[in-house]
Amino acid sequence: MKSMYIYGGILIVSLGAAWAQWKKEPSLVSGEEVVVLYGDADKLESLVWDSEKHRIDLSLKSDEQGSYLWADYTDKKKEKENQKQFKVGEEGTKLLENLSPFVAIRKLNDVDEAKREDLGLKDPKTTLTISRKGKTHTYHIGSEAYGTKDIYLEDQESKTIFLVDDAKVRSLKFGRTKLPDRRLWSFKKDTITHVYLTTIIDEESKTLHFENKNWQDKKNAKWIDADNHNADNKQLTNWITKMLRSTNSEYTFGLDESTLTPAFQLKIEANNQKAEEVSIFHTEEKTTWYARSTHSRGLVKLIKQSISGLSEDIPSLFAAPEVTNTEEPKK
Known about the structure:
The chain is of the alpha+beta class. The protein contains seven helices and 19 strands.
């Protein structure tokens, strides 16, 4: 019974401390800077930017590959095809860092109704909503400060008004162009050690193994055919270099993948990291090209001009001539 009272007392003290932390005045960071909202990036549940132009709903998801940020985007200026979904790229990582904690340049005191109207907060056109650990925080976004692009923001619970560096939320203001992840794999190019290219040639499945020899030494690194060191490395290097520059143009949903024709597949390995796979498809007429990868988590559209040429060059890679040593033997 005594232990029950002890644990109960600890719980009450903990709840009281949490409530005090929640209700206390924003803390100073440095100079006039104050914390608008505490929280860790990986504790985010959802984030919504709702403006006159567009609405972006961001949510943190996870699978066997790890955690990633997913976006549902609505363009309010379009009547048709105004919905988009996509995996968020590095700008999303920066955004979460900017909001964890969310720090303002300064807090404004003694703001009357006339001043609120001057700050664009009487009838705001944009709302930022952040949800963490089951708690939702809503902020109205006002106008830009004179002479800067910094924005005024009002906490809808405390009614506290802040001046915030617009860089903290700039990616949300331009979400359609800044937030999508254009990469087909997560690895940096100079860390990739092996690439396995698989395709069908004359109704036979064939695989070519690219090896990034001396990959740790940028000056001496080179791509070779791991199974045929005498193959034309120049041709192999040109192909793999172009392929590793490939990016997606947009995410595609509602398309029946079974209607597409498989072109080739890649298995990519990097130093001490889990391998990733990329599958390339095209329509029957080869007018549009797509990819699905471990990294993208969805079907993405590719730039036809680059990927179609790479696909056409694949048969010649498997028939790459051997390079003979033309040097005269030393006496």
